[in-house]
Amino acid sequence: MYPPSKVLIIGYGEMGHAMEHLLKEKHQLAIHDIRPGQGLPSIKVEQEAAMADFVLLCVPASPLRDVLGKLAPCLQKHSICLSIAKGLDDQGLTPAQVYRQVFNGGQPHCLLYGPMISEEIRAGRYAFAELGCTDTSTYLGVRGLYQGTRLHIRHSTDIAGISWSAILKNVYAIAFGMADELGLGDNMRGFLAVTALAEIGAIVRRMGGNPDAALSLAGLGDLVTTATSPGSHHHELGRKLARGDIQAIRGEGIHTLETVSRYRLFDTAPYPLYGLIHDTVKAPLNVAMSFEDYLIRIREQGDDVKQAAPSSH
């Protein structure tokens, strides 16, 4: 049995509430959110950080550097920083890369990625995640933190792999929302799942990770959840785009598309489904026609490959 820990939760959105639900019975919590009107008691963040055994960063990727920079001088040497951000910051860096730049190996840190819908966690249902860190002691510490909860954690040292799988699943979930809004059916959903996983695996390899990460909880596990859940933000973004509703089209997946393009983080040409999503978000004029053109192109590419293949006789 692990003793109670002092935990500082930064960010009181959906995941901040979920982490509070998981930990409040066994640990001493302090919670901070930059937004007013969250109903939280006033705390001195630096003071709480100096006493915390764990700092849970339930904020998007963009403000992560500033938050870590503010807290880093206050942290105890044993304090573990855990981020759930599944996106890229404004410089095109993953949360793992931000960690490395801010801490330079001087502070334990990790990433938590997987199917963890906040509403289900708060309803007492199971959740699952990959805990990305390079050392076993950090993994054991976090596992102890969540011991007795319904969050099941696996250890992964493939930081690039699970990072890019988690980042990309938000992008590909948009395609599922578009297809569902267009009424393209279950067959299309199956096709999108296979195609998305193939592209995610290929991009993960290009970005330095193991392509098998696409099949992990951070990849396939979270993709299924995000692409099919009625409450999924990115699934709903796809639906809105298919309806021609371009108001409030925001989210980590949208930011990822913009950031990959701005910094040319990888060549997107080999990934037609990614290209379809990018082009639709950029100009959502006729999503049904865009889907039809996409399917024609990939069918023609398949025919070209078949015609070019040598005869087996």
TrEMBL record:
<keyword id="KW-1208">Phospholipid metabolism</keyword>
<dbReference type="Pfam" id="PF01210">
    <property type="entry name" value="NAD_Gly3P_dh_N"/>
</dbReference>
<dbReference type="InterPro" id="IPR006109">
    <property type="entry name" value="G3P_DH_NAD-dep_C"/>
</dbReference>
<keyword id="KW-0560">Oxidoreductase</keyword>
<dbReference type="InterPro" id="IPR008927">
    <property type="entry name" value="6-PGluconate_DH-like_C_sf"/>
</dbReference>
<dbReference type="InterPro" id="IPR013328">
    <property type="entry name" value="6PGD_dom2"/>
</dbReference>
<dbReference type="GO" id="GO:0008654">
    <property type="term" value="P:phospholipid biosynthetic process"/>
</dbReference>
<dbReference type="GO" id="GO:0046168">
    <property type="term" value="P:glycerol-3-phosphate catabolic process"/>
</dbReference>
<dbReference type="InterPro" id="IPR036291">
    <property type="entry name" value="NAD(P)-bd_dom_sf"/>
</dbReference>
<keyword id="KW-0594">Phospholipid biosynthesis</keyword>
<dbReference type="InterPro" id="IPR011128">
    <property type="entry name" value="G3P_DH_NAD-dep_N"/>
</dbReference>
<feature type="active site" description="Proton acceptor">
    <location>
        <position position="169"/>
    </location>
</feature>
<dbReference type="InterPro" id="IPR006168">
    <property type="entry name" value="G3P_DH_NAD-dep"/>
</dbReference>
<feature type="domain" description="Glycerol-3-phosphate dehydrogenase NAD-dependent C-terminal">
    <location>
        <begin position="158"/>
        <end position="262"/>
    </location>
</feature>
<protein>
    <submittedName>
        <fullName>NAD-dependent glycerol-3-phosphate dehydrogenase domain protein</fullName>
    </submittedName>
</protein>
<dbReference type="GO" id="GO:0005829">
    <property type="term" value="C:cytosol"/>
</dbReference>
<comment type="similarity">
    <text>Belongs to the NAD-dependent glycerol-3-phosphate dehydrogenase family.</text>
</comment>
<dbReference type="GO" id="GO:0047952">
    <property type="term" value="F:glycerol-3-phosphate dehydrogenase [NAD(P)+] activity"/>
</dbReference>
<dbReference type="GO" id="GO:0051287">
    <property type="term" value="F:NAD binding"/>
</dbReference>
<dbReference type="Pfam" id="PF07479">
    <property type="entry name" value="NAD_Gly3P_dh_C"/>
</dbReference>
<feature type="domain" description="Glycerol-3-phosphate dehydrogenase NAD-dependent N-terminal">
    <location>
        <begin position="45"/>
        <end position="136"/>
    </location>
</feature>
<keyword id="KW-0444">Lipid biosynthesis</keyword>
<dbReference type="GO" id="GO:0005975">
    <property type="term" value="P:carbohydrate metabolic process"/>
</dbReference>
<keyword id="KW-0443">Lipid metabolism</keyword>
